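Bench notes, bay 3.
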Amino acid sequence: MNKTMIGHEKLRLLILQVFLKNGFPKEVAEIAALNLVKADLRGIDSHGAARLPGYIRLAKAGRINIQAEPKTTRDTFSTAVLDADGGLGLWTAKEAMKIAIEKAEKYGSGWVAVNNSSHFGIAAAHAEMAIEKNMIGLAMTNASPLVAPAGATQAYLGTNPVCVAMPAGKYPPFILDMATAAAANGKLEIAERNGKPIPHGWAQTAEGKHTDEANTLKKGGTLLPLGSHADGSYHKGYGLGALVDIMSGVLSGANFGIWVPPFVSFLDVNRKDVGKGIGHFLGAWRIDAFEDAPVFKNLMEQWIEGVKSMNKKEGIDEILIPGEPEYRMEQMRRKEGIPLNEKVYEELMKMQ
């Protein structure tokens, strides 16, 4: 599939223009554009500009409130619940993270559960906000029900990502940003656009058989939990996905399980709500509540150097820490540009 190279600043302005054209306030549009470009810069192409049409589609359908006014409905010294008022998750999750950081600055840690929100993009964009404050950040969200619990043939959970971000001294930040499914749905969308099969273990058919068809979800198939099958310990991926759903949905008062409003267009949205919108859970805790920040960073450097000193398997040049591949990709793409899928680029230009 052909690619169109585009500079990150030009891409940001193009995305910003689309959000503004469709009535989003400037502040919301600017944050949303930065989030999507951040995903493309980090090589998470499934959650960058390719996601833009989906957000606009949901806004036009009235499933995203472009004039949302989030409000805190519960509040303690270190915790809060934020009703996002149906707003764009790319923005509302950042608003929640600001609250978590403010609480952490005063009390050592801050935790915010969010309901009545929507798809929030890459989790790293929210969790990493804590790093510049010498804090550790956490971000998680539930999502479209596309993942079957271990042993099931029907979808109940989303890909339900979780991210933890922390400073690492002279090294790039440690950023663990992962779906709790074997693969994110966006990876299947990329494979489908490129006309390629998906790896064994990512998904199953409606009958519960492994498949390499990228469009299997549109035929009633499901994604598999991290681990892919019983011998691969997929009960662990299932457990992690369930935890994210409970923390993001059940605890916050949002929808959960099969009731989560889907982002994808091929799932039925006419389900009775058990909560409000999509849910997130965000947190921040001060490093110096446990250890002096300079000491912690020095120890993180030692930890990383220890990992990198391990004997390598044949064919492996270097052992990387979580977040390092994305960091390196971002540095390269900032210089060389972002390779957009031709179909994604054409759709973006049509939206101008």
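Next record in the batch:
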Amino acid sequence: MDLSLNENELVEHCPKGHPVNECGHCKVRSVSVCSAVKAAELTELDKLARHSKFEKRQNLFEEGEKSNFVYNITSGMVRLYKNSKDGRRQIVGFALPGDFIGLTMPEFHEFSCDALMDTDVCEFSRKGFIELMASQPDLLGRLNSAVSHELTLAREHMVILGRRSAEEKICTFLLVLRRRFARMDALTVRVPLPMNRQDISDFLGMTLETVSRMLTKLERAKVIVIIPDGVRILDLIKLKALSGN
């Protein structure tokens, strides 16, 4: 079963009636680095931004390219991945609305990034963004918070990969994703899964068959129920216990 998200759930992140390129009306601004920009400076921020739309599976950038931009995801979702010389793929992360990509990148991209669904992105030149930070000290503090968020996600990924059982990996993955979506909305029992099971297996370092078996096992145990756009948590306490947390 493909667990692809109903795209309307994640694409509409700016209120109707306002163009997506108006920073002052962007729904994700409160949870992104841009929240530190003073209201009077939003026009300048909007001038600095290049507002781009990426179709499903379209690349934002590829491994080895020069990293001239930083990216703010305003709607949709993207995946970050590396391809090994033997053709294997390792997904290193997923970026949701409000996430910044490229804040900690070196001169050249160390991984590739593509859209899991139709996705809107604000692109800022690295040079222009640095100049903006220099003119607004408050932005530096927010930037440090965003970098800390990136590092936290990286640590959580390492913890997931280091877990002993497949069940713990799946349960932790669902709980972390649930918490990340809550940055935009209140915590709910529903966990959207825009990615398919192959993406999940590549992210968790598991086989496709194991991912499917674990999700089915959790459903039979009435911990979750699989729905067309993700999963619904039926027993949060048990899910947390099974995650090993």
